[in-house]
Design a protein that fits this description.
The complex is a heterodimer of chains A (about 675) and B (about 575). Chain A is α/β, with parallel strands linked by helices and about 675 residues long. Chain A has a domain of about 425 residues: TIM Barrel (Alpha-Beta Barrel), CATH 3.20.20. In chain A, about 30% of the residues lie in helices and about 15% in strands. Chain A contains 20 helices and 18 strands. In chain A, the strands form three sheets. In chain A, strands 1, 2, 3, 4, 5, 15, 16, 17 and 18 form a nine-stranded mixed β-sheet that branches. In chain A, strands 6-9-10-11-12-13-14 form a seven-stranded parallel β-sheet. In chain A, helix 9 packs across helix 12 and helix 12 runs parallel beside helix 13. Chain A is globular and about 90 Å long. The N and C termini of chain A lie far apart (about 65 Å). With about 575 residues, chain B is an alpha/beta fold. Chain B has a single domain, classed as TIM Barrel, CATH 3.20.20. In chain B, a hairpin with a 2-residue loop joins strand 17 and strand 18. In chain B, helix 5 packs across helix 8 and helix 8 packs parallel to helix 9. Chain B is globular. Classes of the chains: A alpha/beta (about 675), B alpha/beta (about 575). At the A-B interface, strand 7, strand 8, helix 9, helix 10 and helix 11 of A face strand 8, strand 9, helix 5, helix 6 and helix 7 of B. Chain A: Necessary for signaling by class 3 semaphorins and subsequent remodeling of the cytoskeleton. Plays a role in axon guidance, neuronal growth cone collapse and cell migration.
Chain lengths: ~675, ~575
């Protein structure tokens, strides 16, 4: 055993780092062939293009903390090539070399809210260009070359490195109460982890207990977050029940409290779940008020049945979680949500896209013209659901989230591709971590395991590694999916999500070459497990600037609890509502003007099952029909103009005869 | 055309012995020329130079095609609706069916919620036995769900020859079942070996849309189609497919009316789901633009659910899918109401009784739209009008095939005859025919039902009450071979793990009380990897050192089968 390992290591030493084979850490590398994960050898080949296999360098998962690694580096790391990452110390070197760094640290005085980034390459979602950035009071004041700035300003020499808008994590659950306990990451811990990963704004979900007031829950979350958040934040509110008072509260939240997105659940039967009719009403309501309907898409009814079946069969471990929530149920619910949203002409946002089939439905709906956004999360982009079968209960349980990670190992790659092509629009983390002891609530019954995975810290790096270094997307698209699109959907653009004069000074200087290994030992979350354990990722934030202040440099975090501000999101975001508004104008239904029907009318009983009365069954009436109608058409009439669908030319009808199925549906 | 070997014989006496000479026999797999001799309603011999008793009535086919009689898998004759009854009863309806070349119908028993399935079934049997002119069988609709229904279903399957049950995803607050109920019904159906049929429309959305449309002042029949958009149909089909997949139950979608619903079925079949789609005469022959007709009575005659699609390309599309096998069987959903009955909904389209005609026109329309246009050949025509239906509902080869021993239900088909469909000449009792004025090529020349000639030279000789109830056995091979194989595979196993003996959070049962117990919130635990070690008997540590890796990579023992194997499911047949 040990010998074999030694041999392997030796073999690897002879290879350049980026050609090294996977094999040492425990999660990422899996046998692709012949292992139990492959039912059939090559079964997945040439179904999706495996971009990972075509690129080099990022699959290696050698742990840099081992001594051998250090040794190997001496031989392999060609010092000149910027392409071969030199491990952890590389990014220190890089930043040290960027001049002005020392002064920057010495100038820890009252001037620190004035900041100049020199020589950076500014990357927005539309273009990249070289310019200096000067910011003051948390705002970007000037962009350009040879800026005239006050003296004594702190300067960061970026040396041509990328400067990107800070990430926006559009989906977190910090400090979420769960049956008397709370997730281990509160707003302080969570937003700290966010900043460490290059995310400078988070959007958390307010989850009121069913039956309780939305406003109270909102105030509660505001209080928690205002006390502790280290970065700017905003809130989604989950609608967990539906009645008239909720309507009023929604109205209030939209108009006065700065919330424009509301999540409804199609899962969690008898708890959060809403019926189709309720969804229809919520969507209609939101469409009128300019809100975004977010949806947790899973068919709760069938899940409840399947859970019962699993437990009956004696499956109580975390594998039961994924077995009782097959990906079809996710896809089915997405399909249904899309249908309802399109009926109500409401923009739809699908949170947590975890499976290929759900993503496919979203991209199909977008092709048909529906206004729908899909949010894959860090976990679904980075790992898969094979770990539910881990023999280590605590490890398996740490992956439990809903919808579950797909057991299909090609899923992350597929989702990354759709993200790159724009079929999926934004990324969140759904960061909602529980300690092992908390997860152990469900040690004898998987339905009791509290759900949630980590990901807020890993999000940006993971997407960079999986999508940009593999060539699926470019740096501009990277900015779009990690930040800009989210800002647009929340109606915060261009304040957030863009580097422009007047925007908030939330910036990240990105190191494309840094390589580091994710592990629970070094992460900033309080959870004991990290679902990405052992993954070696390329790309990392070098400097993170939040509200115009440096919060991360040299790997050191300088965060202050409570500095995070609540950012109100106005309703009717253009990004979603421009199309909706145009369609609303078109979607006027008109009745067909007809003469009054004055022929005989059968009697009928509204209470079903009455006496058959006056039905014309006894006399096959052929005659009386003629001349029944003022319009004067006769029944078996010669094919007169009547056969052409009759519409006065001036009228618009939403579903014109001959429309609908292959064009954008406009209702 | 048809003559008698001995001219002196009186036709009626020997009419149960029949010889057809020189016919091109068309089955779903092949066509060949042969003579065919039948007696007592059963085909006795097929071949050339048959030795037959003297004095047999002989039809000389002159090389014309002889097809198995059509099977109309979906009719609603004499259906009660709010005190009214569908205009065609079993006599009128089966007569119309025979006139169109259909020699067997399968009708739907629709029990009012609260009425037992058995008594409704008996009621329908009584109606049909008294009036039906051709063989028939019955589907039973499940309009509510409780324990008693399950027992009745069992009785129906075991003792009464019913092997298909329809559930409704539409008609909110009347027939509609919830997803959870549908799941249970499907599980029961699978165990009984029956077919789950589904009326696929999202009733919740339809109800909301109806309300909205009425609010806007749209009360005419166009409101019907506006409130039943085709997306809502496709959504429900998708949901039904999902539930059927979960329960490993064969699914049969009645009334496929729109492109998108048909697409969902085609996709599901590609993924391996056992699902069948039934377009109806109306969706294959006409479209929903007529809902906008200024003639209220005409517009109302098209009202059915799901509605005809307003997209005029739909019939063509559905015919193509039927030809390529993505849709398998055709029905008519024949359930016409006359204008006075429709007028119940003259001020509110939601009250218009639903149903269109089509049992008489079915064969001719498919011939005209598919075979004449070259979409399918004559064999596929036999498959979609007769054989597939017989296979799915376990009537094969008694019905749906011309073979020795099969029932003598035959149609001598004339591919060249043209006919203009009109309410003036049709056999239904209603005043409107939704195919009014449509000129179709191809029609039955002679129809033989139970070995007797019922249509000859344009004249019908139907006998009221001669139709027999045909019992159907459960577990049709065509459907259940795959289902059975999958249930054998679909065993789930848990992962054997050591007992978790680490700390467990306390949980308050009432979720409202906020007492954070032992959450690690106060100490941003950087060390917790320590306590985690040795928590588990399996001895794996968290951040994978050497020991953990090997086994972690191989989380299952070789001998175990798991239904959703990591790496399975998404693109192969799902076996759950």
């Amino acid at each position: 055993m040990a010998e074999r390992r030694a041999q392997r290591v030796k073999a690897e030493e002879e290879l350049p780092v980026y050609l090294a084979r996977p094999g040492t850490a425990d999660q990422v590398p899996r046998q692709k062939r012949g292992g139990l994960f492959c039912s059939v050898e090559d079964a997945f080949d040439s179904k999706t293009i495996d971009f990972d296999a075509l690129s080099v360098g990022q699959r290696g998962s050698r742990t840099p903390r081992t001594v051998k690694r250090e040794a190997g580096q001496g031989e392999t790391g060609s010092p000149a090539g910027a392409e071969s990452p030199a491990g952890n110390d590389a990014h220190k070197v890089q930043i040290c070399s960027s001049g002005g760094k020392e002064t920057l640290q010495n100038l820890e005085d009252e001037k620190s809210d004035r900041l100049l980034i020199k020589g950076g390459r500014i990357v927005n979602d539309d273009q990249s260009f070289h310019a200096d950035i000067y910011m003051e009071d948390g705002l970007i004041k000037q962009i350009g070359d040879n800026l005239i700035v006050p003296g004594g300003v702190k300067t960061i020499e970026a040396n041509g490195k990328m400067v990107i808008p800070g990430g926006i994590d559009i989906h977190t659950h910090f400090q979420m109460p769960y049956r008397g306990t709370t997730t281990v990451d509160d707003f302080a811990q969570g937003s700290k982890a966010a900043l460490a990963g290059g995310t400078t704004m988070i959007v958390d979900h307010v989850i009121p207990e069913p039956g309780s007031s939305l406003l109270e829950a909102y105030d509660q979350w505001r209080q928690w977050a205002d006390e502790k958040a280290c970065c700017d934040y905003s809130l989604h509110v989950d609608v967990t029940h539906w009645d008239d008072s909720v309507k009023q509260e929604l109205d209030n939240l939209i108009k006065e409290k700065g919330v424009n997105s509301f999540q409804v659940y199609m899962a969690y039967k008898d708890y959060y779940q809403m019926s189709n009719s309720e969804l229809y009403e919520v969507f209609t309501f939101l469409a009128e008020r300019g809100g975004i309907a977010q949806i947790h898409a899973e068919n709760g009814e069938i899940i409840a049945k399947e859970q019962g079946r699993m437990l009956q069969m004696g499956i109580t471990g975390p594998e039961g979680h994924v077995l009782s929530r097959p990906e079809e149920l996710e896809a089915e619910a997405v399909f249904r949500a899309v249908t309802i949203a399109s009926q109500t002409n409401c923009p739809l946002y699908v949170t947590r896209v975890m499976s290929k089939s759900a993503a496919d439905i979203i991209s199909q709906a977008r092709k048909k013209g529906n206004v729908v956004f899909g949010e894959p999360i860090t976990a679904s982009l980075g790992t898969d659901g094979t770990h539910y079968w881990s023999k280590n209960w605590a490890k398996a349980a740490s992956f439990v989230t809903s919808p579950p990670l797909s057991p299909d190992p090609t899923t992350p790659d597929y989702l990354n591709t759709l993200l790159a092509s724009g079929d999926l629009s934004v990324t969140g983390s759904a960061h909602c971590t529980f300690s092992v002891a908390q997860k152990a609530i469900g040690k004898d019954d998987f339905t009791q395991i509290p759900e949630g995975v980590n990901g807020v810290e890993e999000r940006m790096v993971l997407i960079w590694d999986k999508a940009v270094t593999t060539g699926k997307m470019d740096e501009n698209m990277f900015v779009a999916v990690t930040s800009t699109n989210a800002a647009k959907i929340l109606n915060l653009y261009p304040r957030k999500g863009r580097i422009a004069v007047g925007s908030d000074a939330d910036l990240v200087i990105w190191d494309t070459d840094a390589v580091r290994t994710i592990t629970a030992k070094t992460h900033n979350s309080a959870a004991e497990y990290n679902v990405f354990e052992g993954m070696e990722l390329r790309g990392a934030p070098l400097v993170v600037i939040c509200q115009g202040k440096i919060v991360l440099e040299d790997g050191n975090l300088h965060v202050t609890c409570g500095v995070g501000r609540f950012i109100p999101c106005p309703p009717f975001p253009d990004f979603a509502y421009k199309r909706i508004k145009a369609r609303k104008q078109l979607a006027v239904l008109r009745a067909v003007p007809r003469g009054m029907y004055d022929g005989p009318v059968s009697e009928f009983s509204m209470s079903r099952g009455g006496t058959p009365s006056a039905s014309a069954r006894t006399s096959p009436t052929k005659q009386p029909v003629r001349n029944l109608h003022q319009s004067g058409f006769s029944l078996a009439g010669p094919p007169t103009p009547e056969d052409a669908p009759i519409r006065p030319p001036g009228r618009r009808i939403v579903v014109p005869p001959g429309g609908r199925s292959n064009i954008t549906s406009l209702s | 055309m048809s003559g008698y070997q001995g001219k002196k014989n009186i036709p009626r006496i020997t009419s149960d012995r029949l010889l057809i000479k020189g016919a091109k026999i068309v089955n779903d797999d092949q066509s060949f020329y042969a003579d065919i001799y039948m007696e007592d309603g059963v085909i006795k011999q097929i071949g050339e130079n048959l030795i037959v008793p003297g004095g047999v009535k002989t039809i000389d086919a002159h090389g014309r095609m002889l097809l198995p009689g059509g099977i109309d898998v979906h009719t609603r004759f004499q259906m009660p609706d709010r005190g009214m009854t569908a205009a065609d009863d079993f006599y009128q309806g089966t007569k119309a069916a025979l006139a169109g070349g259909t020699t067997m119908i399968i009708d739907h028993v629709v029990p009012e919620p609260g009425v037992s399935l058995m008594s409704a079934f008996e009621q329908w049997r009584e109606w049909a036995d008294g009036k039906s002119c051709c063989d028939y069988s019955l589907h039973v609709d499940i309009t509510e769900w409780h324990k008693g229904i399950q027992e009745e279903m069992e009785t129906l399957v075991k003792d009464h020859g019913v092997n298909s049950f329809l559930v409704y995803l539409a008609y909110k607050d009347i027939f509609q079942l919830t997803d959870a109920q549908v799941y249970e019904v499907f599980s029961v159906i699978r165990d009984l070996g029956a077919i789950a049929q589904v009326h696929a429309e999202n009733g919740d959305i339809v109800a909301e849309e109806q309300r909205r449309i009425l609010e806007q002042g749209i009360t005419g029949p166009e409101g019907h189609v506006l409130s039943h958009p085709e997306e809502v149909e496709a959504e429900a089909v998708n949901r039904a497919v999902t539930v059927a997949n979960q329960t490993n139950c064969p699914l049969y979608v009645t009334k496929v009316m729109s492109k998108s619903a048909a697409d969902v079925i085609a996709q599901a079949r590609k993924k391996g789901t056992v699902v069948y789609g039934e377009p109806i005469t109306a969706s294959l022959g006409t479209d929903g633009s007529h809902y906008w007709s200024k003639n209220w009575a005409k517009a109302a005659a098209f009202v059915t659910s799901p509605p005809l699609s307003p997209d005029p390309a739909t019939p063509d599309y559905l015919n193509s899918l039927l030809s390529c096998g993505d849709l398998q069987v055709t029905g008519s959903a024949h359930c016409p109401f006359n204008t006075a009955q429709r007028a119940v909904g003259k001020d509110d389209f939601t009250l218009i009784p639903e149903g269109v005609n089509g049992t008489e026109e079915r064969m001719s329309i498919i011939w005209d739209k598919c075979v004449v246009t070259g979409k399918m050949d004559e064999n596929q025509f036999v498959a979609v009008t007769s054989t597939n239906a017989a296979k799915i509902f376990n009537l094969y080869p008694r019905k749906g095939r011309i073979a020795v021993g099969s029932d003598a239900d035959l149609v001598l088909w004339d591919p060249d005859v043209t006919k203009i469909i009109s309410a003036k000449s049709h056999n239904s009792t209603v005043e409107y025919n939704i195919f009014e004025g449509l000129e179709v090529r191809g029609g039955p020349l002679v129809v033989i039902s139970q070995g007797k000639i019922v249509l000859e030279e344009g004249t019908l000789h139907a006998t009221e009450g001669s139709g027999r109830f045909v019992a159907r056995k459960p577990f049709p091979d065509y459907v259940y071979k795959r289902i059975k194989a999958r249930s054998r595979l679909a065993e789930l196993r848990g992962v054997p793990r050591g007992l978790y003996d680490g700390p467990v959070c306390e949980v308050s049962v009432t979720p409202k009380t906020m007492t954070p117990v032992s959450s690690a919130k106060t100490s941003p635990a950087k060390q917790p990897s320590q306590p985690v070690r040795n928590l588990h008997q399996s001895g794996f540590s968290l951040s994978g050192h050497t020991g953990a890796q090997i086994d972690d990579n191989v989380p299952r023992r070789n001998t175990q089968r798991i239904v959703a194997p990591p790496g399975g499911r998404a693109n192969i047949t799902s076996l759950g």
